[in-house]
């Protein structure tokens, strides 16, 4: 009997270690789920970056304002171009395709994507006076880092997380995620450095990144800089279907400051 129990314990331990090893070696494939094609044809800029050529779909306008968008981990960001065009008439729109996504080459990682994001922003800033930075899901961790280090008009975070490690830990409660995860996207670390007004948008029934992440992250920005909107009856992938969604995204920077810092959000 003792021998059987011992073998059972060894088997469970072996399975656990195998599972942890699988998570470790496959983490990039799990985090970065590249979509190969472009759903919406658009002109493109191509940035020659160390180890990659990064594609950026764009629509240029003569106005002095622009929008830069960083998408989710499995998003074809070309799909959001028509909506951004409608929400921001007269602005130039730039959506980045991460390394390995939609015509961009190279291997994605936090360091690489953030570096590419700075390159894109700095290029756009030479042509535009006011730049609004928008991030969705994975892209919120990139957008926060750009906003913390560059002067922007406003920051919009859609279904954001406070700390990417926390998201992964919630999905794998028995795994020492802190020891395994290479790309951490520590948004809470950079939030206090953001000087621009901030809009956070979360889905009330988001199961992937629960609304508590947005609530906690909102508290990390300087007092009076952030406002949180919660879309009732919406989850992670359909938050944009809320009737107020694009009004929230396009809120004037002066109105964001006027709304202040409601931690409980807007139902």
UniProtKB/TrEMBL annotation:
Coiled-coil spans in chain: none
UniProt keyword terms in alphabetical order: Membrane, Transmembrane, Transmembrane helix
Entry keyword annotation includes Membrane: yes
Keyword RNA-binding attached: no
Superkingdom: Bacteria
TM spans (from-to): 6-25
InterPro entries, A to Z: AB_hydrolase_fold
Entries under Gene3D superfamilies matching the protein: alpha/beta hydrolase
SUPFAM superfamilies xrefs: alpha/beta-Hydrolases (SSF53474)
Alphabetized PANTHER family for the sequence: ALPHA/BETA HYDROLASE DOMAIN-CONTAINING PROTEIN (PTHR12277), XAA-PRO DIPEPTIDYL-PEPTIDASE-RELATED (PTHR12277:SF79)
Name of the featured protein: Serine aminopeptidase S33 domain-containing protein
Organism: Ahniella affigens
Taxonomy of the source species: Bacteria, Pseudomonadati, Pseudomonadota, Gammaproteobacteria, Lysobacterales
């Amino acid at each position: 009997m003792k021998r059987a129990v011992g073998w059972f314990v060894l088997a469970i331990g072996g399975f656990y270690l195998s599972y942890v090893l699988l998570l470790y070696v496959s983490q990039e494939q799990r985090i970065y789920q590249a979509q190969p094609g472009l759903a919406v044809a658009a002109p493109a800029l191509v940035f020659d970056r160390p180890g990659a050529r990064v594609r950026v779909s764009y629509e240029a306008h003569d106005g002095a304002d622009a929008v830069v968008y960083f998408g989710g981990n499995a998003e074809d960001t070309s799909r959001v171009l028509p909506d951004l065009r409608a929400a921001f008439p007269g602005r130039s729109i730039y959506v980045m395709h991460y390394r390995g996504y939609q015509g961009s080459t190279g291997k994605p990682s936090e360091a690489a994507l953030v570096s590419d994001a700075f390159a894109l922003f700095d290029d756009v800033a030479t042509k535009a006076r006011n730049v609004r930075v928008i991030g969705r899901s994975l892209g919120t961790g990139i957008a926060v880092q750009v906003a913390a280090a560059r002067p922007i008009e406003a920051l919009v975070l859609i279904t954001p997380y406070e700390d990417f490690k926390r998201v992964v830990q919630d999905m794998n409660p028995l795994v020492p995620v802190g020891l395994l995860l290479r790309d951490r996207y520590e948004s809470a670390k950079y939030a206090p450095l953001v000087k621009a007004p901030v809009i956070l948008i979360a889905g009330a029934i988001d199961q992937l990144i629960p609304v508590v992440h947005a609530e906690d992250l909102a508290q990390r920005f300087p007092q009076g800089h952030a406002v949180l909107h919660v879309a009732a009856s919406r989850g992670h992938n359909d938050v944009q279907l809320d009737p107020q969604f694009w009004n929230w995204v396009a809120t004037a920077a002066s109105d964001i400051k006027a709304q202040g810092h409601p931690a409980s959000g807007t139902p």
